[in-house]
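Re-run requested by the PI after the first attempt was lost when the workstation crashed. Everything re-entered from the original request form. Ligand of interest: PRP.
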Amino acid sequence: MTETLDIALPKGRLGEKVARLLSEAGMGCDGLGGDSRKLVLSGGGGSLRFFWVKPADVPIYVERGAADIGVAGRDVLLESGADVYELLDLGLGKCRMCVAGYPGGLERGGVLRVATKFPNIATRHFMNRGRAIDIIKLNGSIELAPIIGLADVIVDIVETGATLRENSLDVLEEILPISARLVANKASFRFKHGRVQELSAALSGILEGGKN
Ligand code: PRP
């Protein structure tokens, strides 16, 4: 009997794109792209099982082996520091991790107040620059922080740039490019190697076919 491959998918826009990609690769399942609230779905005659999880939780599911493989943004992976194998750049959800704020926001003397959802990425970035910072951890609407004087700058995702523009903020530094990655649990990569490679190769084939 073929063993089940457990796959953690990020709920939301990115997850919907990945679901389409999996279906194109012939590795999806009924209801994967629909608006069902079901959190666990089975496909491939029981050989595939999909979990819908909060995007930021994908690395922990994979690292702990609750899922054999998963899809997560590079931002989420770096922030989590999860010990997983990165198999494939899916090229989806492309954006940039940036320092943003009002022009001159970085020139403030003393300890720089940095608002962000990504404290680890922000800390590493400013540590590399030898800059003392005070992290203000927020969970959303990060752009509000410099506007109301809660922070000097933010470290956040910039996709279209519309949120910054509409709030008169600028990109002050680019930290890194982001896209979605296929990741694997280290033990699953070893013990379910054939199955993991099969899924990775199927997705890779679809991506190389330039259909996305
Ligand atoms: C993300 C991010 C920025 C915005 C960037 O926020 O934190 O605020 O998208 O996209 P843009 O460059 O295309 O404007 P999200 O929509 O996840 O909402 P949030 O405020 O809850 O973080």
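Saved to the shared folder this time. The mean pLDDT is 94.
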